[in-house]
User: Fold this.
Amino acid sequence: MDSIQLLLDGFATALQPQYLLFSFLGVLLGTAVGVLPGIGPAMTVALLLPLTYTLDVTSAIIMFAGIYYGGMYGGSTTSILLNTPGESASIVTALEGNRMARAGRATAALATAAIGSFIAGTLATGLLTLAAPWIADFAVTLGPADYFALMIVAFLTVGALLGSSPVRGLVSLAIGLFFGLVGTDTLTGQQRFTFAIPNLGDGIDVVIVAVGLFAVGEALYVGSRMRHGKLPVIPVTGSWRTWMSKSDWRRSWKPWLRGTAIGFPIGSIPAGGADVATFLSYATEKKLAREPYKQQFGRGAIEGVAGPEAANNAAAAGVLVPLLTLGLPTTATAAIIISAFQTYGLRPGPLLFESESALVWALIASLYVGNVVLVVLNLPLVGMWAKVLQIPRPYLYAGILVFAGLGAYAANFTVFDLGLLLVLGLIGFFMRRHGYPVSPLVVGAILGPMAEEQLRKAMAISQGDPIILVQGLTSQVIYGVMIVLLLGGLWLRRRQRRFEQVDAAAVDTTTIRAVDEELAQQLRDRD
Amino acid sequence: MTSEITTGGVAGSTPAARSRVGELIFVGVILAFSIVALIMVGAIREPMGSSNVIGARVVPYAVCALLLVTSAAAIVAVLRGDVGRPDEGEDIDAEARTSWLTVLRLSLSFASLIVVIPLAGWPAAVTVLFTGASLALGAASWWKALLLGAGLGVLTQVVFGLGLGLSLPPFGTVLPGVFGG
Assistant:
């Protein structure tokens, strides 16, 4: 096969010592930042972006791939080790993982998360390798009207499904679309919403939008309602080789595979990203679990960590499919990646596979490499990550503000951007305060201008007849799929909420231990 | 109280009422802004005889209208009792009242960058921001914050300025004068 040869070439690039070093650095920094409490994958990627500004393109995207996977993984360590019951209930990994940790099985939870992430990441990257060239070939045949349809799908699903309230998601999306409009119109050269400020003539950099909303907004929001006093971090003990018992392995491997199968397809369609995938995997594991393990769900069942963690990482790879082949971001993290690519002078989309094929395959190869680095690094270093969690909060959030400032200043080296960042941060603060999800805003800001370009192209072709937008069979299929996605997604959301309400009921440590003991006893009796 | 179903939040009725007013103000501002923006679209110049069928105004009109409709829908939702649920997080105390003073002090600390970077350079600006922000967030000792800030300022200058070649100004316009350089 053609693509196998290309992939091998990609490996030849990615495995050069220099690039291996960048991959290693990327994973290390991505995990370290991702582990920090309050920092999600999108913020990790946005904050670490300036690191890659001065690198050559290949090094930059290889390092970036490491940061992406590292940041995706880092969060699970936080939710397992940080003992903040209640708050983390919305993240399914924390549901079981945190309870396992409180019952003294933190190491098993961490190990099944790390190994599951590795297996799922590798399998999903394999699926990406197979699917991407095929989809790219298909994508070349799409016209502007079809692209416009795809972007409308992304808008609506992202707005309605990222976050818990569709109306608030759509408000967020609309604000993002507005930010995308600011600047000089590419086709007519007219100033739009620049308020006669020359710095706004080039538009608002998406990286500044993301850093402002995620980093500055989060720091302001946490500052306004900070939890005082010490947070207990669960200690990690013993050698990592003995973390998972035989029964842990036996109970984990099927959830890993099922999580991959659920995560990858969900990640690759615009349906709410990793959040939906982890929830679906959790619900599946809970349903499929047999006694005596079933009763352990909600009290620290390892399947409930293994499945969702695998699904999470598989979805992370799935998100790259529309990103690389169509140039379509479906999560905030993906939107930042697209804007990063643009700063490197690349334009993700079907043509990227033809024009920059060596680069794309080096990127895909480095995803495999990054996964290996991730598992090699994370098992032995978990003790260090646990220490990172103990950074005093005032210094942590002050540091986040410093790096946010660095990221915004390094984009254009003007203090104007810092003022803009603060304004965006305040918007982010109020959005968090009132339950408006910020991710749709970021996606809207990057996707809006792209959609406008495709719309105008399509209308130019049809000479102003809007029927072209719904004329093609492909467009019709895309709009049809959108309705299915929206209805399915909203139904899932409703189920998830009901699920969480039932499971969020506080379970104290003694119950978890009691069930654990009881289970062990039953197993001994059986043997 | 007014809302029959609490959104699962831990907050009691009084904070909910307060956040309801807050959300109404927030969405109200967005709504007002969208109306202003709609009027502003009319000011975008459409060059005569441009070959494009869709000019520079069409999409702005659509986006501003979307902003108007969605924010109006959000106001209706809030009035009907569907109040937004504040974000949760590892470091957030769900029961705490909003400390506006902290938000103000953090914003001022961050805004100091705009003044200090041109005047005194990047490391000094980081020192001011870090010290101000960590004290606003309740750091125990000011000298520790100052030392950490200065260290972080110099470190980022060395790593990003010297190591990665980003052109961060090491000194501003004032500092060299002070040191006689």
